[in-house]
Specification:
The protein is mainly alpha-helical. Helices cover 70% and strands 0% of the residues. It has a single domain, classed as Helix Hairpins, CATH 1.10.287. The chain has five helices and no strands. Helix 1 packs antiparallel against helix 2 and helix 2 packs antiparallel against helix 4. The chain starts with a helix and ends with a helix.
């Protein structure tokens, strides 16, 4: 039994759906990043499937278009993973958590200590 285009597309749809549910339902940043990677791999599978089963006759160079697109998505995903993990490590060192609902502010969670207290400022004027 040969694998058909519709089977590849069904598998890609399942992978993308699992990734989308992971992004929406999970609270951990690392799990969200893994779910995004799963969604990108589903897109890669779709690119390669359409390259393998073209809708119209293609030349050999045109048939490699899906492979080239998948290669660029893989390169982009690697860069996204590197930058995303660096941000997660920096945030974890600062906040000691990777839960998304606890990371709602862009500013530092600890209050900054002012150089002069309020009574001292009132007396100096």
């Amino acid at each position: 039994m040969a694998t058909t285009l519709s089977q590849y597309l069904a598998l890609a749809a399942v992978l993308f759906t699992v990734g989308a549910v992971g992004v929406v339902a999970r609270r951990n940043v690392l799990t969200i990043l893994m779910s995004i990677e799963l969604m990108l791999n589903a897109a890669n599978l779709t690119f390669v499937a359409f390259s393998r089963f073209p809708l119209r006759p293609l030349t050999a160079a045109q048939a490699m278009g899906g492979h080239a697109a998948a290669f660029f998505v893989i390169a982009t995903a690697a860069a996204e993973a590197a930058v995303g993990l660096a941000i997660v490590i920096a945030v974890f060192r600062r906040r000691v958590t990777t839960q998304v609902d606890e990371l709602t502010l862009l500013r530092d969670a600890t209050p900054q200590v002012e150089s002069l207290s309020a009574p001292a400022r009132a007396e100096s004027h």
